[in-house]
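Many introductory courses stop at the sequence. We go one step further.
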Amino acid sequence: MEDLRFYPTQSSQCAIDRAISIKAGAAELLYVYIDVEPIGFNRGFYTVDVRYFYRVTADAFVGAARPVQICGLCVFDKRVILFGSEGNAKVFSSEVVFDGLDEQNIMKSNLPTAVVEAVDPIVLNMKLVDVCECRPCDCELTEIPPCICACFGSDLCFGNDGKRVYVTLGQFSIIRLERETQLLMPVYDYCMPEKECGCGGGSCEDDPCEIFRHVKFPVNEFFPPNAMGAPCDNYQSVKGCCT
């Protein structure tokens, strides 16, 4: 995600206007908005529109003084097309709220549900840009959820006056579609334990040394794991040489 517009708080904008350079800090994923819509010309496929909201912090260097920490919002939109099959059944649920109606559970279709798994991104680069160098194609945000604005403690600056900061983030995420379906699974009766453990109270008949000899040597605890995944059979001979 390259050159995302950074929307700072009001106090941070004052520091950005006086800053001569910016040092990248950290980024936190606050919220992900997801919208799923079916594709009319290709049945079974859906467009998943995802909007990521980030809180980004950085250090603004103002003259020879100590750097001032700035904080702001970055937003990134992503659209993917995934296969989620199709179905027209209406689903009813008994999960309701007492003294009221839970409209989401009274009736719903069996359309797939989009799920996004993501970790906090990595700040790869930050640029401080003067007003004359700002991009004319930057579009201003019109709707920000109140819960997102509350994460910053003060109002955000969305205007075009003053210097701007552009952020490049690296994001790892998984986007998938889920749906409820019925599967035929083998079912067994309740399994009740029929054998008592004779090792209670410290009176175990098995030799503890003999039990220890059957334990594999924990190679990964002593050496960093190999990315290629070395087979454990190569270390069987090492087990008998260590005590």
